[in-house]
């Protein structure tokens, strides 16, 4: 049979999802005995690749966001070994974002999660006994909440109702200001870390439960927001293992 020019090359062309997964998982494909420095260099590309996975791969939003944070922790550990700078904890906000192709209800749920986290951290910061609970961190959550509400307002104008409650029940946090039982990981974790990860998980639920999938740009923006909360949680002591992040627990 005659060969069609370019057919084999076209059939081998990776989709955006496959390209992102290939880059994100590159460190796992290195042969045993690969120098650790080479592994470190390979892993540097993983965090951004996992955000691409969240944006381009159907039903991989949660995996992409959480593995972004997980891979940053790997990079941070290796960077310390080689005297390099670890990935920084950047502000988890939506600065400059003016539109989002996702339902207002999803944005409302995310805003509620941000506002709840901001309130909890503000209260704990005032008590001064909880590591990582600071007013700047609280303000960051409240700013993100306002940005999410503004995006929802843009979509629904005067018909939109602000979902934020401003004050929330935090008796359990006050009773456990240092460490707290985390249902997802089934471990006792630092309280501020639990707040950050709860916020991340609530936002994942808000995005993944929407009937209409948002476009790639919106998905990647929201995945980056979630990932920043997850990375902050891990920096504060939340476990970064697959068992803690991905295994389903019985309620």
Give the key terms:
single chain; two-stranded antiparallel ribbon; 251 residues; 3% strand; mainly alpha
Brief rundown of the structure:
The protein has about 250 residues and is mainly α. Helices cover about 60% and strands about 5% of the residues.
The main sheet orders its strands as 1-2
| Helix/strand structural class | mainly alpha
The parts where pLDDT drops under 50 for at least 5 residues are none
Number of strands: 2
Largest sheet at a glance? 2 strands, antiparallel
SS strand fraction: under 5%
- Rg calc: 20 Å
Instruction: Give the % helix.
Output: 55-70%
- Quaternary organisation: single chain
Task: Calculate the terminal CA-CA distance, rounded to whole Å.
Answer: 59 Å
Give average pLDDT, whole number.
92
User: What is the approximate shape?
Assistant: globular
Number of helices: 11
List the helices and strands in order.
Answer: HHHHHHHHEEHHH
